[in-house]
Amino acid sequence: MSGRPSSNWFLLPVTTVVLVGLFCLSTLQTVEGVQCYVCSWSPADSNRVDVCTRKNFSESVRTHSCETGCETVTVFDKNGRLDFFYRNCAANTSSITGTCFNETSKAITKEICNCDSNYCNKGSGLEQQLGIVLSGILALLMMVKF
Ligand SMILES: *[C@@H]1O[C@H](CO)[C@@H](O)[C@H](O)[C@H]1NC(C)=O
Ligand SMILES: *[C@@H]1O[C@H](CO)[C@@H](O)[C@H](O)[C@H]1NC(C)=O
Ligand SMILES: *[C@@H]1O[C@H](CO)[C@@H](O)[C@H](O)[C@H]1NC(C)=O
């Protein structure tokens, strides 16, 4: 009769450790990867339908699981004309800003917008920033409510 409580006493911490372990694993997985839209378009592709640029984006394009975050890149030629546009996994982890910035070299300007939540590279950079602001407000509201 006295063996039963002692085996419970042993099982409880084991169960707790397993549950906490599973919980950590599941949050780790969601932190490690985000889903990003992957597509590209260039005005030179005269026979391809544009489903990628801001004007013509369709959510039916391919998606990919990315470890670093997502990005939307617009490449302008030296006259400021659109040269190439793509959405993909973010290339550079150290600079996930959730905003847009320009990288200018002699021949081209690259406008890079990056972000690190699921499907965040769908709109313009402005929408991405708005999304961050909105989720911030949502988080605040939830903190007030609970
Ligand atoms: C933009 O998308 C529409 C259909 O959604 C398509 O008919 C049109 O050709 C596209 N524009 C370009 C430049 O590909
Ligand atoms: C990555 O981002 C950092 C910080 O913005 C920058 O200094 C570095 O040159 C970038 N690396 C590449 C490969 O673009
Ligand atoms: C980047 O450069 C392009 C072309 O010159 C311009 O249209 C765009 O507004 C710039 N973006 C940022 C974030 O400075």
Quick synopsis:
This is Protein sleepless. The chain has helices at 3-32, 125-145; strands at residues 34-37, 39-41, 63-66, 70-76, 82-89, 100-104, 109-115.
Explained architecture:
This is Protein sleepless. It comes from Daphnia sinensis. Keywords: Signal. With 146 residues, the protein is α+β, with helices and mostly antiparallel strands. It is 35% helix and 26% strand. The protein has 2 helices and 7 strands; from the N terminus they run αβββββββα. It has helices spanning 3-32, 125-145, and strands at residues 34-37, 39-41, 63-66, 70-76, 82-89, 100-104, 109-115. Strands 2-5-4-7-6 form a 5-stranded antiparallel β-sheet. Strands 1-3 form a two-stranded antiparallel ribbon. Strand 6 (100-104) and strand 7 form a beta hairpin. The protein is elongated. It starts with a helix and ends with a helix. Mean pLDDT is 81; it is low at 26-30. One 2-acetamido-2-deoxy-beta-D-glucopyranose is lined by residues 49-50, 56.
Number of helices: 2
Low-confidence stretches: 26-30
Amount of beta strand: 25-35%
Report mean pLDDT, rounded to a whole number: 81
The rough form would be described as elongated
Structural class: alpha+beta
Please estimate the helix content.
Answer: 25-40%
Largest sheet, order of strands side by side? 2-5-4-7-6
Distance between the termini: 44 Å
* Radius of gyration computed on alpha carbons: 23 Å
SSE sequence, one letter per element? HEEEEEEEH
User: Mind summarizing the main beta sheet?
Assistant: 5 strands, antiparallel
What are the bound molecules?
2-acetamido-2-deoxy-beta-D-glucopyranose
Count of individual beta strands: 7
Keywords: Signal
Protein name: Protein sleepless
Organism: Daphnia sinensis
Signal peptide: 1-33
